[in-house]
Amino acid sequence: MISRTSIAGWYRNRFVWVAVILLAVSGTAVVLANAGGSEADPVDLKAQITARMRTVLEQSDPTAHQHHEHHPATSHTPEGGKAPVVCGVHVYGFEPANATVLAEVKTVYGFHLCGVAEQKRPWDWAVKLAGPLIMDLSTDPPGIQVVEATAEVRFIDRLREMFPDPYEEQATKEALSESEMADLRRRYDAAAGL
Known about the structure:
Elements: H1 4-36, H2 42-59, E1 85-95, E2 107-116, E3 128-136, E4 143-146, H3 155-162, H4 165-173, H5 178-191
Antiparallel strand pairs: 1-2, 2-3, 3-4
Helix pairs in contact: 3-4
């Protein structure tokens, strides 16, 4: 004979199992819906662009950044190799603005701050390259164009010539955020062996 306690326990356990099954089914549906989507999360796309921009800058020779310095832009390690370049970047925006995946992005507008990480050379004494830039991702290797003043054109005028209106204002004010700068300094110190 079945007691009332065992019937009540069976009902209670049945509701628990139904709840577990419903949670499992709904979780699977969410995973499948996200896996099948064709559009990238805008935050994820911006992170991918940031990573690509940083990689391009760090792998290119600093002279490709079009900076014309009085000191050498490349330095060498004691072993005779080139010292690594460590960059922090901030993306203002990209074109086409409706791109949903990295492969669709042709032009990136942003800021870069790079340091040549010679061994045991502190950040404050490092050779640095910095400023607003435009990166052309449609070429191989990507093109890098920085804003530079000339004898005939002031920096701000050159910036306004190069940057579209939506990014022009950011380029006159923004650089790296505190977290971006902290990440850059951490990576630089590691590369310089500090």
